């Protein structure tokens, strides 16, 4: 059994005495900035830096108006936000491959992280199709303005234990700089990400 | 080939070498800007270092905890002692599912195990889906950098590769259009793949879940579409708790590419409905490295490649001048563990300036380990004969004061000639500095003659400098 072989070899090799810090001294969660207050201005500035578009509004009808202006009328949209229905019935789709060709995925974000512009979603938000935020050509993420944390430490505190089988920090549109370090937005995932901040 | 000769080939095109140097320096500068925006950056590095050190000291327990939790979550866990076993495991899973086509996101481990050629021999088509990796795969070359696999290529060269393999118009060298062509090409593969393989950035013992970070979204496109997902990881990727991800995800992208975060940080805990998820834990020499107190800290590496981008030798010699697939400073301390003789020149591909250790997000003492490998390699007699001989000659000379003084005199007189003839490789691109007019010994003797020894001098016997002559 390779499990036994490997674990035995590792146990032989690891030498607790040779390490600088006894286990109890390791800071499992660094405590340095867990009390900072999140700032919406910082979050918006970071989104701008990572190539995401920011829209602010007071109601879902403003979001709906933006979508009808910016998404072609004949384009297919898939939505997980009740107030902003899409054209595709996600519950009727059983094979994720059929999601290819979705123009815009409309997704609720649980909270945003100010320091890096990421938003958190797990299967509660994503629904049955994990591939949705990757396969759609564009993303429209709905986030309530008060749902912000300042750093990733607070983010994990807030997440607690992930209750579903998959969770995702999503920070802006997909991108690559693999060709001569030229930044290109839209690698395999979405070509654009719009974050609608609901005040 | 050893590093000096391969580097010489790279430097035959000085313009390209200068471009390579500048491109990587740009990435290093972006990293600096990002790090400077985090006031607690140094505390983060220290926390990361301590978490990794603690984990390595209790690795077996955390591995068991992780594997048990992962299995309880419905992930099928496999253990591989070496690269061969890893390849056999992956192949057996693929065979069971009659897989013809596998889409793969970046995994340095599968590169280490030579998985692609193994699967291709068994008739399975392997598509690397990271853009940079796909480019070098089409060229049938390995990555030259672990984060930016095609960093050594110019746009026009990528255009040629795509023209030949993807049918883009000849002469196309626009990064946007080339990326679009790759997107279309790879999407067709994502939609038709029978299985997906990904690497693992972090595996959390507490939850049995693992995290994969990409900017392109390629790992997720593969994993969430295919009916089978195989994730492969080295046993050192474990961290104890989910909260520790807060520390590592803050460090990883900032150190790697100068971004505040990767675009996608995906947390896989359970297979999706109807999907099979496998995880292969690979040792392949890691327990051997763990048993070497001088080198075990190298296992803390999170593969950000910050040490590559800052290294004056890597920037000026390129990834292909290193004999191991992980190049740069970290590769140079990992490779000798795999095969000391085959990679004996790698720890010498460094100025020991220590910049690698200073940018390392987990504070690996890379330059100290480089020096220690040099000592081990020398003691094992793996140095080129001329190096050993010149050291022996040197030792013989410095044991004979008269001869030593004579050699010093000879060197000071012979220096202009050395510059003129460019005998030493060091003088190919620069002159040695002018020799001082007097040797240290002469200067010291002059000082002793000038200044009488008294109690004041004994307290502070080091003279501030030569007394100016009136």
TrEMBL record, chain A:
<feature type="domain" description="LUD">
    <location>
        <begin position="103"/>
        <end position="197"/>
    </location>
</feature>
<dbReference type="InterPro" id="IPR003741">
    <property type="entry name" value="LUD_dom"/>
</dbReference>
<dbReference type="InterPro" id="IPR037171">
    <property type="entry name" value="NagB/RpiA_transferase-like"/>
</dbReference>
<dbReference type="Pfam" id="PF02589">
    <property type="entry name" value="LUD_dom"/>
</dbReference>
<protein>
    <submittedName>
        <fullName>L-lactate dehydrogenase complex protein LldG</fullName>
    </submittedName>
</protein>
<dbReference type="InterPro" id="IPR024185">
    <property type="entry name" value="FTHF_cligase-like_sf"/>
</dbReference>
């Amino acid at each position: 059994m390779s499990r036994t072989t490997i674990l035995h070899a590792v146990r032989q090799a690891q030498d607790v005495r040779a390490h600088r810090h006894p286990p109890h001294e390791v800071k499992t969660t660094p405590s340095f900035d867990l009390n900072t207050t999140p700032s919406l201005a910082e979050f918006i500035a970071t989104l701008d830096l990572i190539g995401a578009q920011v829209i602010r509004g007071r109601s879902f009808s403003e979001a709906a108006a933006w979508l009808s202006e910016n998404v072609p009328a004949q384009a297919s949209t898939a939505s997980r936000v009740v107030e902003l229905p899409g054209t595709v019935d996600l519950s009727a789709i059983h094979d994720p491959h059929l999601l290819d060709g979705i123009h815009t995925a409309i997704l609720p974000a649980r909270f945003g992280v100010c320091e890096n512009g990421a938003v958190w979603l797990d299967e509660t938000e994503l629904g049955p199709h994990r591939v949705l935020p990757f396969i759609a050509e564009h993303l429209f993420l709905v986030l309530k303005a008060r749902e912000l944390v300042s750093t990733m430490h607070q983010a994990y505190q807030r997440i607690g234990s992930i209750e579903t089988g998959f969770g995702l920090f999503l920070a802006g549109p997909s991108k690559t700089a693999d060709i001569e370090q030229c930044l290109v937005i839209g690698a395999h995932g979405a070509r654009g990400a719009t974050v609608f901040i609901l005040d | 080939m050893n590093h000096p000769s391969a580097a010489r080939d790279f430097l035959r095109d000085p313009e390209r070498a200068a471009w390579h140097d500048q491109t990587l320096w740009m990435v290093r500068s972006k990293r600096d800007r990002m790090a400077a925006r985090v006031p607690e950056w140094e505390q983060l590095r220290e926390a990361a270092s301590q978490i990794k050190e603690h984990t390595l000291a209790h690795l077996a327990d955390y591995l068991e905890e992780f594997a048990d939790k992962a299995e309880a979550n419905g992930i099928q866990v496999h253990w591989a002692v070496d690269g061969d076993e890893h390849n056999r495991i992956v192949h057996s899973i693929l065979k069971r599912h009659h897989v013809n086509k596998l889409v793969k996101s970046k995994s340095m481990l599968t590169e280490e195990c030579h998985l692609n050629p193994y699967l291709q021999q068994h008739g399975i088509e392997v598509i690397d889906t990271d853009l940079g990796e796909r480019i070098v795969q089409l060229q049938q070359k390995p990555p030259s950098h672990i984060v930016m696999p095609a960093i050594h290529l110019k746009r026009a060269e990528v255009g040629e590769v795509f023209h030949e393999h993807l049918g883009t118009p000849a002469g196309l060298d626009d990064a946007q259009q080339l990326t679009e062509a790759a997107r279309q090409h790879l999407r067709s593969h994502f939609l038709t793949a029978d299985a997906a393989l990904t690497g693992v950035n972090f595996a959390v013992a507490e939850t049995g879940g693992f995290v994969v970070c990409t900017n392109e979204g390629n790992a997720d496109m593969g994993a969430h579409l295919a009916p089978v997902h195989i994730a492969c990881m080295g046993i050192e990727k474990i961290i104890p708790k989910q909260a520790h991800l807060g520390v590592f995800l803050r460090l990883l992208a900032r150190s790697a590419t100068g971004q505040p975060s990767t675009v996608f940080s995906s947390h896989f805990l359970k297979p999706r409905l109807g999907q099979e998820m496998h995880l292969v834990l690979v040792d392949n020499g890691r327990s051997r490295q763990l048993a070497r107190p001088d080198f075990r800290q190298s296992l803390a590496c999170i593969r950000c490649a910050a040490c590559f981008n800052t290294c004056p030798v890597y920037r000026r010699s390129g990834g292909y001048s290193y004999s191991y697939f992980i190049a740069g400073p970290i590769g140079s301390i990992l490779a000798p563990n795999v095969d000391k003789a085959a990679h004996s020149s790698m720890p010498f591909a460094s100025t020991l300036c220590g910049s690698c250790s200073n940018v390392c997000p987990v504070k690996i003492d890379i330059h100290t380990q480089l020096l220690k490998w040099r000592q081990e390699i020398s003691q094992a007699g793996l140095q080129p004969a001329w190096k050993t001989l010149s050291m022996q000659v040197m030792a013989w000379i410095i044991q004979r004061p008269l001869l030593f003084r004579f050699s010093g005199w000879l060197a000071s007189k012979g220096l202009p000639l050395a510059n003129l003839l460019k005998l030493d490789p060091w003088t190919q691109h620069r002159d040695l500095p002018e020799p001082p007019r007097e040797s240290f010994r002469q200067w010291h003797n002059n000082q002793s003659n000038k200044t009488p020894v008294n109690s004041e001098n004994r307290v502070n016997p080091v003279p501030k400098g030569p007394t100016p002559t009136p």
